[in-house]
Amino acid sequence: MQNDDLIKRYYSQLLLDGMSVEKQKLLSKKSVTVIGCGGLGSPLATYLAGSGIGNIILIDHDVVELRNLHRQVFYCENDIGTNKVDVLAKYLKSLNSNISIQTNAKRSWDLVNKDLKSDLLIDCADNLRTSYSLNKVACEEKIGFLTASVAGNIGQISLFDNEKNHCCLECIFPKEGDMDGNDCADIGILGPSVALIASIQTSIAIDYLIGEKLHVNQIYRVDTKNFSIQKNKISPDSSCKIN
Ligand SMILES: [Zn+2]
């Protein structure tokens, strides 16, 4: 993209502190993998596409269901029965024709590392099994891992860069118990709550992709009812099984 076109398209984004034409070009060279295209993944992928991330890989085995629509508002009644990745990819391409979108309508744990690999693995899934398997892939491949979950009125977001010293999801939450427990939809969830968590997750992703380290090895706990955010540093655990 020529500089003039880039400035026209991303003008308001470029005005921000920390942004520049060079960083916008950097975003256009970045590739991210979004695992889960539901309440978190669909708004997140849309904002990433709008902001000019060069390549977005969408992974989700689900089709759109009626019970999704109260919170996954990027899907319409006409989409029921269609693969989420196909509906979302079509929308993202219409939003920003300068970026590339790839899709894979499978469960992430049925894929091999090379199918998932990118500059940042973004976990928008609704189950622990996926989060832990992606954490392992990110550690093995030494790539960034941004995970979020939301249940009821509480959301959690954490980012690991997997660069120098080991620090991962299992360092803070050792894998134990039922990996196939209730997902957020069974606990209860309001559409705006999940959108709030998705917005924070997307902002963290963009910061990371332009080289900002502010959020690395941090966990954010967001109360979407009382509107409070707690930020805590995550310390590596030398006994972590992934280490
Ligand atoms: Zn660990």
UniProtKB/TrEMBL annotation:
InterPro entries documented for this protein: ThiF/MoeB/HesA (IPR045886), ThiF_NAD_FAD-bd (IPR000594), Ubiquitin-activating_enz (IPR035985)
Span of domain THIF-type NAD/FAD binding fold: 11-241
GO molecular function: nucleotidyltransferase activity; sulfotransferase activity; thiosulfate-cyanide sulfurtransferase activity; ubiquitin-like modifier activating enzyme activity
GO CC annotation: cytosol
PANTHER family xrefs: SULFUR CARRIER PROTEIN THIS ADENYLYLTRANSFERASE (PTHR10953:SF240), UBIQUITIN-ACTIVATING ENZYME E1 (PTHR10953)
Name the record gives this protein: HesA/MoeB/ThiF family protein
